[in-house]
Write a structure and sequence with these properties.
CATH topology of one domain: Lambda Exonuclease, Chain A
Structural class: alpha+beta
Radius of gyration: 21 Å
Strand order of the largest sheet: 2-3-4-5-6
CATH class of one domain: Alpha Beta
Number of strands: 7
Distance between the termini: 15 Å
Number of helices: 12
Largest sheet: 5 strands, mixed
Order of helices and strands: HHHEHHHEEEHHEEHHHHE
Strand content: 15-25%
Shape: globular
Bound molecules: iron/sulfur cluster
Helix content: 40-55%
Length: 320
Amino acid sequence: MNPELKAEIELCLGDTSTEWGSSRWAAWRRCKRESYLAYDVKLERVIRDDDDEDEGRFGGGLDYFAVGHYCHGILRYMQRGAVKGEERRWEDVTDYLGMAVDGPPPELLEEVYRLMRFYWEFWGTANGGWPSEATITGIEEYLETPPELAVLPHTGRADTILEIGGQIVVVDTKTRKNKIPDDIEKFRRKARTRAQFVSLSGMLQMKLKLDEPPAVMVNAIVKTKLPQMQRVIVDIRQVDVDRWIEDHKANAATALDQQEAAALYVSNSGISDVLPYVYPRNLDSCAPELGSPCRFYGYCHALSDEERALNWGVKAKVLP
Ligand code: SF4
């Protein structure tokens, strides 16, 4: 593979996570202990080849976070090509991943290939997969709340920013398990209360100093047996953004207090294991009867320290 192409693909596959993003704040609102384990300790489940006991919802099986990451990388690659006026093959990225040392396991790459094949067949590769009247004005653009807004920030990335007929639309691409329900209006009403969508609109409004918050387009890649591609535009109203800002200020102040309490505990006691003292459980979130169990269920509810030590650890995620 020529070095320029390789460098471009590697750039597109680069880490785009941000420190104080929607997922971290959502985890913090769900369970203080979950957010501490995931984002401060960076705890991970140890998956072994012969480990089928916890397959699926309890953390084994396919790494769906990685599937989403690679799909985002391919979209980025194609959109950057469109902005530069280049015709690109999305398969360049899967070819690269297939050859990479430490690349994804074959079943993961197969899933990425399957979803992307449907995506590009459905939307077409022209203009990075967007209608011809849309102009791509941003790709993976970093967003954050200004420091005067709250003591801790909210950060994020706009996967794509489009200008369509003079209107700015911020795109959030999601690989999802379930299709968007047929009652689109109901989906829109619910989406207007979701911090992950409202925060994108609000942060972009602040960044571009827009009079009104931009609409959010949910660009869904549904991982059903026969993958489905859906796009829904959600108009975000100023009242939605104002409500989110008010909430974020309060959450940020409480989270900072908690961090300060943890630091004080460490300096006073000399014990670094702050978990049981500063980060409370939310038992309602561990294994709800409806919905998925918490990713740390096996850690928090292990029957012994040995079991916990055997199955859980800290390792940096290595992407090819
Ligand atoms: S298992 Fe329960 S207590 Fe533990 S992090 Fe998850 S929600 Fe919190």
